[in-house]
Amino acid sequence: MTKTLALLNDKRVRDVAYQVAVVVGLVGLTVFFVRNASENMVKAGIASGFDFLWRNSGIDVPFVLTDYTRADTILGLFWAGVANTMLVTVVAMVLATALGFLVGIARLSSHWLLSTLAGAYIEFVRNIPLLFFVLFWYFGVIAALPAPRDSVSVFGVAFLNNRGLTIPLPDAPANFRWALAAILLSWLAQWLVSLWARRRKDRTGQDAPMLTIGLVLIVLVPVLAVTWASLATRWDIPILRGFNYRGGFVVIPEFVALLAALVTYTAGFIAEIVRGGIQAVPHGQVEAASALGLRPGRTLRLVTIPQAMRVMIPPLTNQYLNVLKNSSFGAAIAYPDVVSLFMGSALNNTGQAIEIIAMTLAVYLVIGLAVSAFMNWYNARIALVTR
Amino acid sequence: MTIRLLAATAILAASASLASAQQLAPSPTLDAVKARGNIECGVHLGLPGFSFADDKGEWTGLDVDYCKALAAAVLGDAKKVKFTPTSVQQRWPILQSGQVDLLARNSTITFSRNASLGLNFQGINFYEGQTFIVRKATNAKSAADLDGASVCVAAGSTEEKNASDWFLERNLKVTITNFQKNDDAIAAYDAGRCDAYTAGVGALAGQRVKLKVPGDHIILTQPISNDPQGPVTRWGDERWQLIVRWVLNGQIAAEMLGVTSANVDQMKASSKNSEVRRLLGAEGNFGAMMGLSNDWMYNVIKQVGNYGESFERTVGMGSTLKLERGQNQLWTKGGLLFTPPFQ
Predict the structure, then answer these.
(1) Closest chain B residue by Cα to residue A241
(2) Which of A60, A134, A254, A333 to mutate to test the interface with B (most CBs of B within 10 A)?
(3) Half-sphere exposure of residue B12, counting CA atoms within 13 Å on the CB side?
(4) I need a labelling partner for B171 at 20 to 30 A (CA). Which of A1, A323, B79, B181 fits?
(5) Hey, CA dihedral for B9, B12, B15, B21, is it positive or negative?
(6) Model confidence pLDDT, tens digit, residues B64-86
(7) Hey, is the C-beta of B192 within 8 angstroms of any chain A C-beta?
(8) What is the pLDDT of residue A261?
(9) pTM for this structure?
């Protein structure tokens, strides 16, 4: 008896008991909701379960990265949508970061016109809804581009019109796989050599000709590899026939419009994060750097930004997650992302709302958590180590 | 003897109590409609001829007329309808979850919708055929001329799959771009994103009105599919389904029998045709058998009119769409419209 009482009063035991109770409660609640929903759906005659994923999809997708065709299953349609979501998200993250850094640094410039323009851009972008941007870019892009017959030709192999940018596609991608492997290998070599060079410099003080090595390994090898692969492959060059160009790969205007909207919109926020991060670095650091004789450019690159990064990473992570979530605005302009394809076409064809919405949620959750995990890892890596 | 007497009394008492109570299956939807005082009808976001709200917020159209007819039958007043505009994506969940009492939203009847979405289609109020709208400048005369074209379509519609199937079967390469809303798709077509926009003939006639220069576009006459459309209810509540089905049948029957909004009073008073008399409640108690008043169809015809009147006013020659009756003519006049007898 006293033993049980003692156990009950033990803080550790009670802590564990509370947590177990919460978990059991949560699981119970979920089970209750799922069972309740499925029972009611059976009563209402609505199909449930995940069998529909293996049904034939029959839906045409105009922009596919996977090997999906309309003869595939709905699961294939799902992955095609996920791939399109990831493509636009990743490209938008990279470009928005680059543009955001430029604008943020311009905002801090002592050049009046530059800083005012950057400021105006930021204020404009931050106070306008994203949907407006998406539609503006979309109808702007379509309106600005010519009809297929008056396409803008790029060296006679690629063609730009209001159906998209049609680019040649290699008949067989094998050579490009080899080229890609060569490029990755040479970049790996570059990394190893630079590691070795730094060690050697620490040990002996000797400089290695890193500029030349870098030029060869980072630029020359990839250029050669791609040139070789292009020459060794037969190309499917688009030809104008009937309504539009046939053959090749089409970068659809929806992709371009969504990408432009996400990049210009997010860059405004990233610019403010960059400005805030840089201003968070104590001014004494900059003064110390110039006292040591560093020019402003090098001060920015070597002293300010590395310290500013520590402040910038957490809010930057937020912006990256926003890009991911905002990519769903593509549904407004027929960009075939996971929302448009899976929650739009597939949902309407199968009517299985609960399963489809749960899977779409899971996609955003998984990608979002992966982005967070990467950014947290990066944050930990560059964090100030205090001894 | 006593036992027999007891049994007989018991049977008598039981049948008496059965007779005194209304012998109707419970209908939660009808009860809710009566308590609320209006019918919640899910319609298209805005499709001239079918369901379209003008600048004063007044809804008109063939589907809208059907909702009004139902309100006249159930509540005695065709104005007691609340219209809920729904997109292609919203329509089924809104009906399944009970936010609307029915859909009259030019939606095609298909097997899988009937079998796996928990939906029932209550007859056909419009025989639609899918086709394409193209710019006159393209010189396309039929869908077969669209090889290589880009086609805008509403995602998840029957048209999306129909078009894909049709072109694949004929080995024609067509790029289909799927928009979330019909309006987005038609706007993109108008902006030059696509060579064609696909939907039903009736829907296209309605959408064409919205284009910047309607005269520059032509609707291809040859349909690639047939898409029967009609009011939709969710599974369950058989009595409500019965009402929805028979109001539509009643409008068609009225046209067959020559009952119009103009002559309905006279027909009710003096017609010698028993079917007309049953339809209008002058004979029998058809309304009461569904839990409605016996003048249910009288109200419909008086306030909304028969099917033909509705058709001409909304999509036919009396409208901007100027559609021929075609398949939507009575079967006796070479069309497909048909109703089981009111007997």
Answers:
(1) B148
(2) A60
(3) 6
(4) B181
(5) negative
(6) 999 999 999 999 999 999 999 99
(7) yes
(8) 94
(9) 0.80
